[in-house]
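Record type: monomer structure entry
Structure origin: computed from sequence
Chain ID: A
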Amino acid sequence: MAEDHATGEQAGKSAPTRRDFVAYGGSIAATGLLAGCTDSTDAGPTGGGDGDAGNESDGGGNDGGGSDGSGGDGTDDESGEESAPETYTVTMEPVGSVEFEGVPETWVANNGSWADMGIALGQAPPEAVYLTSRYHTQYYDEIPGLSVDKSGMTSLWESELDVESFLELGEDADVFVIDPNFILGRTSNWEQEDIDQIESAGTPFFGNSIFSRGYGWHDYEYLSLYEAFEKLAEVFQERERYEAFDAVHEEFLGRVDEIVPPEGERPSVAIMWPQPVDEPTAFSPYLIDEGTSFKQWRDLGVEDAFATTGVRDFHSDRGQVDYETLLEIDPDVLLLRGNEAKTEAEFRDTVVSFMEDHNVASRLTAVENGDVYRGGSLYQGPITNLVLTERAAGQVYGVDEELFDRQRVADIVSGDFE
């Protein structure tokens, strides 16, 4: 857990405010104001969750300009006083065109995908996310000087989402970076009128559920990770930062292509959520789809072990597979979600150790060969995707090298991307 290097006052200067954070373009984040903190245990598939395996159904313009070419958060006039910010509009399905009278300073994110996008864009962390336990801030340990303290962050899903909590958050938040249809599809006690009431109080919704394509209610355009990232960059008026990250990503994909073996030499993988997490006897299966939570596995070109079997994706029927079914399919690699709060050693001492001692699990090829790994988080943004993809390359291809420039990422977050 990283230490807080810059809390309170420093050298006789007052602590920077949230407005200062935005004005400095995020440089505070990369110098340690946001102290890292280890994660709590992931909620399991049958518990409340922030999207997947839960009890649920789971741009453009010049720099500083919005989607309509206007924007910015105001400039000083000749008298030295700050001018009023220009209004700008950003358009994305399903929320349509959302008007902003200035760059948001405080915000709420649906999950770690959008939260990570905000951090990459040099913003202060969101005030709340759906479940803080699934916003895995320990990934930032890979980036020099970057850490995020989520100890004071609110989990929207404590028991049941309610309108009153959103109205309270809206008193401070400038935007809810949340797909409203996710809430309507996730809960049975919300209606469109509730969304309208929250927005009429002054805080708009702006989001699209991009992490999975397994939901029947999502009948509108899906976005790729970087398409969504670009939209959020428009909201925060951070076009240049987005473009700098996009360049890092393109270079990264080129490195990935170089280490991926020919198609016939790639392993078959089974991505699952174990139940119970530490000593699993059943699994919720996932088929690799176009959602962002599978991005690293698509980019690495692995073979989906379930794709040509009768196993259906968890989202289809809430089904499970047992060890006997897995033994029939016998994937080369087992990738188990819900274990991201564990270190690699902790994962091996609990989950892998249990499977090695199990009379059926121990006969699986992946268990025999030591190819059982943490499967990555449900939610990925531009920073965490780089970290998770590099980790995955080591898991499935034995690659032991850095595939992206960590200091370059830190520099972009801090605003040094000239």
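Annotation 1: Residues 104 and 174 are 5 Å apart (CA to CA).
Annotation 2: Residues 1-44, 46-77 have pLDDT under 50 and may be disordered.
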